[in-house]
Specification:
The structure holds 2 protein chains of 2 kinds. By secondary structure, chain A is mostly beta strands. Chain A is built from no helices and 11 strands. In chain A, a hairpin with a 2-residue loop joins β5 and β6. Chain A is globular. In chain B, strands 2, 4, 5, 9, 10 and 11 form a 6-stranded mixed sheet that branches. Chain B has a 5-stranded antiparallel sheet with strand order 1-3-8-7-6, with no helix packed on it. Chain B starts with a strand and ends with a strand. The chains are: A mainly beta, B mainly beta. At the A-B interface, β4, β5, β9 and β10 of A face β4, β5 and β9 of B.
Amino acid sequence: DGGITQSPKYLFRKEGQNVTLSCEQNLNHDAMYWYRQDPGQGLRLIYYSQIVNDFQKGDIAEGYSVSREKKESFPLTVTSAQKNPTAFYLCASKSSGTGGTEAFFGQGTRLTVV
Amino acid sequence: GQQLNQSPQSMFIQEGEDVSMNCTSSSIFNTWLWYKQEPGEGPVLLIALYKAGELTSNGRLTAQFGITRKDSFLNISASIPSDVGIYFCAGQLLTGGGNKLTFGTGTQLKVEL
């Protein structure tokens, strides 16, 4: 089945540790996105990538890093510099072609700092 | 970053009632999307709109792309308990937005039996 897969679904991290969230898609989409969701604040864009080996900061990139070495994969690292990392993280992908505006989401990763 | 103004923020309705929510912006969009998110899950696409004035249905859901390109609404007819969730609008700016979507703040829908 084609889709976008995030793992793990739940993740616990100790303060001061880096942690990497996985996002893989087999939809052959060029563009991939990471969003953070906090209660009552909707979705905020962390990083996005329009093509392999290229990515741009979104609205809240501080404390996060990404890579896009393969078209299918866009991992997000939450570093120790992120002051309030506990949140629900969503990965999405969409085509960059004509009419390719519909974004499809993974099931999310809930990160909790303990 | 810009977010769309989505209202109402939450709704608590009786089963069988019709529901209406909307999104507005000061900017012009070339696409409007409506998503539903259930607790602990990623948003699922409900309806996509591509032309000003377009009216599209998906079962009991109907959405319209505003004629000014600055707004969109979503109606749910005869609500049922499984309609519970958070509904998000999203749009792609006509200019200056790159290949990014801008999201509304969400409407939380609760259905009373």
